[in-house]
Amino acid sequence: MPVFDFSGSTDKKQESICTYTSFRSEETEATWERPMLILDNAKRQWKHHSCGIFTNQAKRTSFEFKEEDGTFEADILRVDARFISLLRWLGENHISVRLSGKNTEEGYAVYKIRETAFGGGTKLSAEDGFLQFMIERLLASHAPEDEQEEDEQEELGDDMKLTSLQSITDFMTCAGRTLPDNIRLWARRNLAVARSHEVSPEERRHAQRALSIMMNIQWKNNYFESIDPVEARRILDEELYGMEKVKQRIIETIIQINRTHTLPAYGLLLVGPAGTGKSQIAYAVARILKLPWTTLDMSSINDPEQLTGSSRIYANAKPGIIMDAFSMAGESNLVFIINELDKATAGKGNGNPADVLLTLLDNLGFTDNYMECMVPTVGVYPIATANDKDQISAPLMSRFAVIELPDYTEEEKKVIFSKFALPKVLKRMSLKEEECVVAPDGLEAVIEQFADTTGIRDLEQAAEHIAANALYQIEVNHVSSVTFDREMVKKLFE
After folding, report:
1. According to the model, what pLDDT value does residue 123 have?
2. Within 13 A of 89's CA, how many CA atoms are on the CB side?
3. How many CB atoms lie within 10 A of CB 471?
4. Which pLDDT score is estimated for 12?
């Protein structure tokens, strides 16, 4: 009886041919001088805009150009390591694309890839929007530590959101290795749940929602670019009058970042009377760091679950405020401005909301009950404000470098009113300085009027009131200018 050995086929499986070498790049924008990849142009010079498909890399790493006189193949010579997985995926799915590049001595330098509907081929998860989203995400990522595939690209993906399972799956295929290891493993488990028919529809919905939130966040490392101390000082002087000790402490923080390229181990706790500009300082620091910011108002949080999210066992479960902040920012590096830290209370008896912040402030990672995953917090810079530091627990206090802000003196308030508050209001109301003048005795009256209040909020409101009255008199009484002396100021505020 004859025996047929089907495993002994004479046709050997063709081994894949890799024609390229990879290189590491930290460029955030692709140009022909700093391209995504380089194709062989020794036999033929390719057009600025050329259409075709990447070949299946299981056979050969090349690109098939669809030219007017036929189809021509060119080997891939060099690839940015971040794009390797993306190119493989494009080839495996026979995605028709248009390359933009320039012929150089080294080869055809590709700096742009766009999806096309060429030949009615297979489309991406969300057509070209998905591809551009992937390119932007990859360009914003760091190259993998080892020499393996990765993905990235450029252009119009700003409005792209990963919501469907297909787009999330494609993203994991193309750029999964750019994610932190624990998030990548978490995503695989949740993808399995979202696809499973052995769990309830509610579980699948929660898993897909959590995936969409997590995948739309750019998880960056803890490396920070240097910051110009001169520009930082300019911003501080623009936003704050006086407060030299505060400014000095912030500039010291900037110098530290420039030396270590990482955030300091401690955040800032600004303590002082109401109206002294604590929140304004926090916003200025976020502006200097060029990071998105979010605020947590502890006086309005009376349940830890508002911060940590609720468990997926509930149909109406949702992430907490902290996770929402990451989602709104779209990245993991941001400034958390924690207002009124001293007003955090035990709330409903489910624990102290302030204690939830400890894991966030330790930079060891934060776990949201809904997400069920520890997210990295090494790029979070906390800035807290408080009126009374004695109301803050010792563990929380130990996470901050404390800066105490004294109230302004009368002389400082005079300068702030005349040099900052009033000119700002006049500019907003399109009034000239000569149209609204506060005489020296009028300025004294303004300061006396608010001598018993802390901070400068009342002074800013007084400037608004005076300017509005001047505008009224100019428009109604048809005067050319108004000068406020002591008597006019007293009458205005009586």
Report:
1. 53
2. 24
3. 17
4. 47
Question: Any residues with CB less than 8 A from the CB of 260 and at least 6 apart, and which?
Answer: none
Spell out the SS3 assignment of the chain. Answer: CCCCCCCCCCCCCCCCECCCEEECCCCCCCCCCCCCEEECCCCCCCCCEEEEEECCCCCECEEEEEECCEEEEEEEEEEEHHHHHHHHHHHHCCCEEEEEEEECCCCEEEEEEEECCHHHCCCCEEHHHHHHHHHHHHHCCCCCCCCCCCCCCCCCCCCCCCCCHHHHHHHHHHHHHHCCHHHHHHHHHHHHHHHCCCCCHHHHHHHHHHHHHHHCCECCCCCCCCCCHHHHHHHHHHHCCCCHHHHHHHHHHHHHHHHHCCCCCCEEEEECCCCCCHHHHHHHHHHHHCCCEEEEEHHHCCCCHHHHCCCCCCCCCCCCHHHHHHHHHCECCEEEEEECHHHCCCCCCCCCHHHHHHHHHCCCCEEECCCCEEECCCCEEEEEEECCHHHCCHHHHCCEEEEECCCCCHHHHHHHHHHHHHHHHHHHCCCCHHHEEECHHHHHHHHHHCCCCCCCHHHHHHHHHHHHHHHHHHHHCCCCCEEECHHHHHHHHC
- Please list the residues that pair with 80 across neighbouring strands: 23
> Does 69 score more than 80 pLDDT?
yes
Q: How many residues does the chain have?
A: 494
pLDDT value at residue 158: 43
Average confidence (pLDDT) over 188-208: 91
Q: Delineate the domains of the chain, giving CATH numbers in brackets.
A: 21-178 (no CATH), 229-404 (3.40.50.300), 410-493 (1.10.8.60)
Beta strand pairing call for 334-339 and 96-103: unpaired
Token pair for 75 = 């080997």
Encoding tokens for residue 160?
């792209």
The string of pLDDT tens digits covering residues 283-294 is 888 889 888 888
Kindly report the average pLDDT of the chain as a whole number: 84
Mean pLDDT, rounded, for 99-112: 94
Question: Which residues sit opposite 412 in a β-bridge?
Answer: none
* 221-225, 380-384, 486-490: the lowest-pLDDT one: 221-225
At residue 345 the predicted structure's pLDDT band, cuts being 50, 70 and 90, is low
Q: Which tokens go with 80?
A: 């940015």
The predicted structure's pLDDT at residue 74: 93
pLDDT surpasses 90 at 328 = no
What average pLDDT does this structure show over 406-416?
84
312 and 206 Cβ atoms separated by less than 8 Å:
yes
Which distant-in-sequence residues (6+ apart) come within 8 Å of 351 by Cβ? 304
